[in-house]
Amino acid sequence: MYRLKLLSVLIAATLILAVVGQVNVPVAAQTDEAVVWAFVPSENSQEVLASADAIAKLVTEKTNIPIKTFVATEFAGVVEAMCNGQAQMGALNTFGYVLASSRDCADVGLVSVRNGSTSYRGQIITLATSGIKTLADLKGKTFCRPDPLSTSGWIIPSILLKANGINVDTDIKVTDVGGHDAVVENVYNGNCDAGATFDDARGQVADKYPDVLDKVVVIDYSAAIPNDTVSFAPAFDKDKRAAIVKALLDIVGDKANADLVKSVYNWTGLAEAQDAFFDDFRQQLDSAGVKIDDLVPTPKPEATMEATAEATP
Question: CA-CA distances (angstroms) from residue 230 to 77, 106, 142, 222?
Fold first, then answer.
């Protein structure tokens, strides 16, 4: 298997994890105003919403803070919700967080943990029978991506494709399909010649397509990418933020909640982090000549709610 040319886009995440305190965090008396927690879309957004709502209810039970959850129709919708004050919390993906923080709309509180790691990698996939062996073979092909602001599904692949001589505007036909699982499914069914997802998104459709690991193959991987976040509006009440962070850490630390936590974007845990966690990622975007705002869809999407739920005491 060919390694992606790293060139100027090697991403080595610098972790700054804070030690979780054992003391209880005081919480202000309950108010009727709910904290809004926005989530990025998935092909199964209703399932994500149900899981997010269940976790929000557990947080509310521990903190007495009512939380309302919603799944946006686009990745950028969560950024806009954070920036226009519609949401005080956001389950932002890597690029979404970097974009929102550049606008002073978000400050990371937690990063997700999967399989013991706070970073992940992307992959480019195709059918085993497609004849596509290298990135250069993608010229003239159709390419599925989850969303224009998906870090592993487009931001990093677009940089790496350019590094391998592919003009992403003219050499491939790009189709947005709404989720990483949808990318795998479309490649499996031959609707796209290739696509990009996180590693290994094929598992998300294995129940539906038991032979997916044989039929859909990986032609290359990206370098490490910082994981997605639970972020807060910078002006959000510090005591409430501390209480919510502690509650979430307690929830994911309880083995009884393992299945519920995993149902939200395959989380296996959460870890505290600071904004500097993303500095290397920012520097590599800069080195590749990528301007953050240039990657934002025009016109900017509204923070449209695809689905909503509210957790109250």
Answer: 15, 10, 33, 23
Closest CA to 144 of 129, 124, 164, 130: 124
- Same domain (yes/no): 233, 215: no
* Bond before 26 cis per omega within 30 degrees: no
| Structure tokens belonging to residue 235 | 């002006």
Cβ atoms of 277 and 14 closer than 8 Å: yes
115: which residues sit within 8 A by CB, 6+ positions away? 268
Residue 29 lies in a domain: no
| Of 97, 109, 71, 122, the residue nearest 264 (C-alpha) | 71
Tokens of 178: 């709404």
End-to-end CA distance of the chain: 52
Whether residues 142 and 286 fall in one domain? no
Return the pLDDT at 131.
96
pLDDT, tens digit, for every residue of 277-311? 999 889 878 877 777 777 665 544 444 444 444 44
Residue showing tokens 């995993």: 262
Rg (CA), the chain: 19
> Sign (positive/negative) of CA torsion 18, 23, 29, 31?
positive
Q: 222, 254, 284: which is the final residue of a domain? A: 222
What CATH number corresponds to the domain at position 168? 3.40.190.10
